[in-house]
Amino acid sequence: MSTNKFFGGKLASGALLIAAGLLGASLQAQAAAVITINNLNAPGEGFNDPTPVAPVGGNSGTTLGEQRLIAFTHAANIWGATLTSNQPIVINAQFSNLTCTATSATLGSAGATSIFRNFPNAPKANTWYSYALANKIAGAYQGTAGAAQINANFNAKLGQTGCLDGTFFYLGLDSNHGSNIDFVVTLLHEMGHGVGFQTFTNGSTGAQNGGFPAIWDHYLMGSATGKLWKDMTNAERQASALSGDKLVWTGPLTNAAAPEVLRQGVPALNVSGSQAGATAGAHPVGEASFGPALSATPITGAIMPVVTAAGALDLACDPLTGLNAIAVRNNVALVSRGTCGFTVKVKNLQNAGAKAVLVADNAAGTVTGLGGSDPTITIPAVRITQADGAALLAALGKRTRTTSAVYATLGLDMSRYAGTDSAGRLLMFAPNPYQGGSSVSHFDTSATRNLLMEPAISADLTQSPLVPQDLTFKLLQDIGW
Amino acid sequence: MIQKKTQQALRLASAAALFAVAGLAQAAGQTVAKDPETGALRAPTAAEAQALQGKAASGRLSNAASQPRGLLTGKINPAPVYHRDGTVEQELDESSQSFSVAVRKADGTIETACVTGAEAAQAIVKGKKSISKTAKVHAHEHK
Fold this sequence. Notes:
Strand content of chain A: 15-25%
Radius of gyration of chain A: 25 Å
Order of helices and strands of chain A: EEHEEEEEHEEEHEEHEHEEEEHEHEEHEH
Largest interface: A-B, 106 and 80 residues
Helix content of chain A: 10-25%
Distance between the termini of chain A: 30 Å
Strand order of the largest sheet of chain A: 15-14-21-17-18-19-20-16
Oligomer: heterodimer
Shape of chain B: elongated
Number of helices of chain A: 9
Distance between the termini of chain B: 52 Å
Helix content of chain B: 25-40%
Structural class of chain B: alpha+beta
């Protein structure tokens, strides 16, 4: 079996001790925490898989099991150097066969094994804290001595036939993962949840665990009502979990550090003009991963739609001809998402002389970005919601062949940081419509730069949870770390 | 040297965990473990219970494997524990765990997302739910 008696002066067999603090001192990490990994795999499996492999990306292991464990240890070391606790953090870890298809897979799971309230030194009464955090605050081991604080389970079959075929965990330590899944960053994210980056309130039903809020809920607020999650009814929490850009973090440390991490300026579309009608004003937009970035110096132009013979928004998947080509020249083109890639549409509109492009979504929901790559694109493009696209098309009912009295001003709102609301509070993930299992326990995807604890792992993440690379540890400090 | 010690510790860990799995037994709804040193039956440690849970989840051991089980004891729907000093402890199950999932899109790109609970992860992996809006879309959604 696996036990851990480090603070008794002896490390029992069966545990891997991670002596943290190896990564250098940081003003954000007062000291360090000891992380112990319990390897639950049987011989020949998971962390003990004897399959020979070549060293990769700074990982010197020569078997698959060794490399998995070295990568796991690397991630644990990062957290160990970041967190401060005089109590060890024990992780029950294993690789096992998790759900897969040829084109999809559960990569792994992690989280706190237990939660505690009303423990010695608890800052807030009747409030759940994750196991590791409760131990830190109490300065003593809570619950059963030696029990693990975090559970972690990862997919042993990933990349094999029938399990996201051909896409493997990249076990290197340098994030040079190519088309594979970066195991270290995935671990850092899931361990983040394990040490407390999560609520224990059900986001789907709004129900608190046992009727008590999590410490998370003391800082999570619906900005439309000004209510904290701890003070909401179940129905209010349900609504808040799908409130789009109306769910914010109120923790002072995180919000104060936001300017050190996030880009100043958020994409902004302002509509004006004598025919703008109800569309006048600011509208949310999603940025494109191609073409020139929006800047503080906005682009302004008349909005002109690309339309079908029936007058509906067209797709612009083919080179523009006739009236559509005349309409977009030197104007801001409005087209519909669908059928072809975003870069195809924008390139066709660029070739027709458009100065910018608004791509109206073809499905309801929160606005998101435009993916793709084409270095020959030189005009900016953004996505707008399906509803905004329909409203703009209606407002453009009165127009000439070459211009309209509905104008777009497209640029960056420099009064905000990307990933915050107008009051400078971090936006938390609350997609609308609601997606099963989506979680308010993440930063919103509008954050730029990308953050470790967004719901998707971004390719450009560093391995640091600290400012100026990331806000994850600041949020953990807000809740007591 | 450090790495050598690490590997040695890991080998020991794996051997101990194996024994814990092999020594587990169930009787009358209670879980017991066979102590590797004395051979006596006793309550399982947290690690042993965790290993048992893994067995149960694989469907080899329990006829109730589909029900949420505590992450430490393997108990179904674990109840809160009230300690003398006022501390209240609540063991969690997989419904509170965070799951990373990945899906290959038609254009060959991979989308990842982190969702709460095994049920939500299964729904995405089995194609019953989409993750397109949960992803950092400007990196993934191309049309």
